[in-house]
Automatic annotation (TrEMBL):
Pfam families: HTH_3. This is HigA family addiction module antitoxin. Residues 7-62 form the HTH cro/C1-type domain. Keywords: DNA-binding. The keyword Plastid does not apply. It comes from the Bacteria. PROSITE patterns: HTH_CROC1 (PS50943). NCBIfam families: antidote_HigA (TIGR02607). The keyword DNA-binding applies. InterPro entries: Cro/C1-type_HTH (IPR001387), Lambda_DNA-bd_dom_sf (IPR010982), Toxin_antidote_HigA (IPR013430).
């Protein structure tokens, strides 16, 4: 789940806030918050700090949620990512120079 969904549920809906009210509280414009809530953008470190100051959830938790979401998105298409596996040359594994 995109972290914007969590913000909408846990911060806005739980507190009876509109997007406009929450944007004012966070000190961002309404479009910035709307983009986040609608999964068009992610949580930046600055936004994480703003969320912590406004709603109490530690910034680190918001950033972990964002990172988990991004990693899950990439893992869904991991088979499409073409990378050549690196193998240490045999003489280096034996400690030879």
């Amino acid at each position: 789940m995109h972290p914007g969904t969590t913000i909408r549920q846990d911060c806005l809906e739980r507190n009876g806030l509109s997007v406009t009210d929450a944007a004012r509280i966070l000190g961002v414009d309404r479009q910035t918050l709307s983009n986040l809530l609608n999964a068009r953008s992610g949580i930046s470190p600055e936004m994480a700090v703003r969320l912590e100051k406004a709603f109490g959830t530690p910034a680190r938790e918001w950033l972990i949620r964002q990172l988990d979401h991004e990693l899950a998105e990439v893992m869904r298409r991991a088979d499409e990512i073409d990378v050549e596996a690196f193998h240490t040359p045999a003489h280096e594994r034996r400690g030879e120079a």
